[in-house]
Design goal:
Structural class: alpha/beta
Largest sheet: 6 strands, parallel
Radius of gyration: 19 Å
Strand order of the largest sheet: 3-2-1-4-5-6
Length: about 210
C-alpha cells in the first residue's frame, strides 16, 4: 500500500549524463548475470553445480559462433558477485573483466545478455542486443528474460537450439526498434531532465517527513 508514487530517474540515466566514455563498435560483449544469483537461489530448487557445466558449455558454443560470424572479439562482463577464477577456467579463450560493464557497453558493436539491469545503458545508447534464452534456471529467470525480449522487440536465441543465423540475418534481426527502446526509457528509466534521481529522492523525503531538520 502506498499514499503516493513519485517517479525518479534510474541510476543508469543519471550516470549516462555524466559519462565520458568514448563510443565505438569494436567488440561483442556478453553481460553475465551470475548463474548463482540470489534471485534464482531464493526462488528455485535447483542443483546449480550440475547445471553449471551444461550452461557454460552451451554459452561457450554460442559465443564462439557469433565471434566467428562477425570476426570480432568476445568480452565477458562479469557480474560483481561472479567468481572470476571459475569463469576464466571455462572461458579461457575469451577476454573477461569485472566492474567495468558500463565502459564495455560503450565500446560494443553487439550486446548479448539474459537479464541484467546493466542492459539499461545499452538501451540508452541504442545498441544492438541479442536476448539469450534459457530455461535452465527456472521460471522466474525465464520470465525476466521474456520481459526484456518482448518489451524491446529483441532478437532471441535459445541456447538449447542450434545456431544457424547468417551475418546479414543477424544484422536485420538486431536492428534497433527505436519506438520500443524510447518507450522503455520513458516508462522505466527516465522521468526528469533536471534533477538526479538520488537528489529528488532526498528532497522528496525531506519535504514529506522533514528529515534534515530532525
Amino acid at each position: 500500500y502506498f499514499e503516493n508514487t513519485i517517479l525518479i530517474n534510474s541510476r543508469s540515466y543519471d550516470k549516462l549524463k555524466k559519462n565520458q566514455y568514448n563510443l565505438s563498435n569494436s567488440r561483442i560483449i556478453f553481460i553475465d548475470g551470475n548463474y548463482e544469483h540470489l534471485d534464482v537461489l531464493q526462488r528455485e530448487n535447483l542443483n546449480l553445480n550440475s547445471l553449471k557445466d551444461e550452461y557454460f558449455k552451451k554459452l561457450k558454443v554460442f559465443l564462439k559462433k557469433i565471434s566467428l560470424i562477425f570476426d570480432k572479439e568476445i568480452f565477458i562482463c562479469l557480474h560483481p558477485n561472479s567468481n572470476i577464477q571459475e569463469y576464466k577456467k571455462f572461458f579461457s579463450e575469451f577476454n573477461l573483466g569485472q566492474f567495468e560493464t558500463e565502459k564495455n557497453i560503450y565500446s560494443s558493436f553487439l550486446v548479448i545478455f539474459h537479464e541484467s539491469s546493466s542492459i539499461d545503458t545499452a538501451i540508452f545508447l541504442k545498441k544492438r542486443i541479442i536476448s539469450l534464452q534459457t530455461n535452465l534456471f527456472g521460471k522466474y529467470f525465464e520470465n525476466r528474460i521474456n520481459k526484456y525480449k518482448n518489451e524491446l522487440a529483441l532478437m532471441s536465441v535459445d541456447l538449447n537450439e542450434e545456431f544457424f543465423f547468417e551475418k546479414k540475418e543477424i544484422y536485420e534481426k538486431t536492428k534497433v526498434n527505436e519506438n520500443k527502446y524510447n518507450n522503455y526509457i520513458r516508462t522505466y528509466l527516465k522521468s526528469d531532465d533536471n534533477e538526479d534521481g538520488i537528489s529528488k529522492l532526498y528532497r522528496t523525503l525531506n519535504e514529506k517527513f522533514n528529515l534534515i531538520n530532525k
